[in-house]
Write a structure and sequence with these properties.
By secondary structure, the protein is of the alpha/beta class. The protein has a single domain, classed as Alpha-Beta Barrel (TIM Barrel), CATH 3.20.20.370. It is built from 10 helices and 10 strands. Strands 3, 4, 5, 8, 9 and 10 form a 6-stranded parallel β-sheet that branches. The protein has a two-stranded parallel sheet with strand order 1-2. The chain has a two-stranded parallel sheet with strand order 6-7. The relative contact order is 0.20. The termini are far apart. The structure holds zinc ion (ZN). Zinc ion binds next to loops.
């Protein structure tokens, strides 16, 4: 498909730059796992005052936007200058992340494998995929996975103006909230191409920027055994693994996780995710 080819071409162009960027810094460590928490998570106020009936004048002035609960206001975060690349952990903890989906042909199989081993993962979804596959996002919520924002159309953010970046991020957070039940707290720039606007807007929308430590290169469709080898040889405490459940033929990614997941568990790794807001 044309779009898949576009994704692949872009990724090939950006792969070397992204790899240098990821290897060139040791900063961007996320505290996660065990009793540690990714960051202080504030619980939105939903006490009696939220349930009070509005005064009659206020009621008339309210816009008719439906009967759902009000959208939770995102907590503004400190603006980072580089994304989080790995998790900080004392034990053998790792994190699996899947980008570009959800896709009806691949994502259900990955969810099945994760469920089989009772493992949680992160899914950085694109709005245009999420809007057509809301039931998969709902299943992610039910299964305890964490859903992040990966823009609406997967553009190169460094070529967009601030208004377009904001729209890409905001629309995606809206569809995630509808299908997942809460707004995403994590953002990942397509192609790992970050810029100042993405960091600033993400922080304003309550999302931390997350990159990765080990790229499975599954987007190159290198063969199932290569993907397995990348994960198994890259396994180490704190590693964040990048894979894809859409954006091209991801049957190799589907097969690979069936092999490397039990291997990681047998090797004593605990697969973790950041805590979800309660
Ligand atoms: Zn992507």
């Amino acid at each position: 498909m044309q779009k898949d080819q576009f994704f692949t071409r872009r990724r090939l162009l950006l792969a070397s730059a992204a790899a240098v960027g990821a290897a060139g810094t040791t900063a961007g460590v996320l505290m996660a796992g065990g009793e540690e928490t990714a960051r202080t998570v504030s619980v939105p106020v939903a006490g009696p005052q939220a349930r009070q009936a509005p005064k009659s004048s206020a009621f008339r002035l309210r816009p008719l936007t439906g009967y759902g609960p009000p959208r939770s206001a995102p907590k503004k975060l400190k603006v980072r200058h580089e994304p989080i690349l790995r998790i900080s952990t004392k034990g053998r903890r790792m994190m699996l992340t899947f980008d570009d989906g959800p896709h009806p042909d691949y994502t259900p199989h990955i969810l099945d494998t994760l469920a089989k081993y009772d493992v949680r993962a992160m899914f950085f979804v694109c709005g245009e995929m999420a809007v057509d596959n809301k039931e998969l996002i709902a299943r992610m919520a039910e299964d305890g996975h964490v859903v992040g924002n990966h823009t609406w159309t997967h553009p190169l953010l460094t070529q967009l103006d601030r208004g377009d970046i904001k729209s890409e991020m905001e629309r995606t957070s809206d569809v995630i909230e509808d299908a997942y039940g809460e707004r995403p707290q994590w953002f990942r720039a397509p192609y790992g191409a970050w810029n100042k606007a993405a960091f600033q807007l993400g922080a304003k929308m309550g999302m931390e920027p997350m990159a990765w430590t080990v790229d499975t290169t599954d987007w190159e469709v290198p063969g199932t055994s290569t993907i397995i080898d990348r994960v198994e040889s890259g396994a180490a405490p704190g590693v964040v693994v990048l894979s894809h459940d859409a954006g091209g033929d991801r049957s190799q990614s589907v097969r690979a996780i069936r092999e490397y997941l039990p291997y990681l568990l047998d090797s004593g790794y605990h697969l973790t995710v950041p805590p979800r807001r309660i």
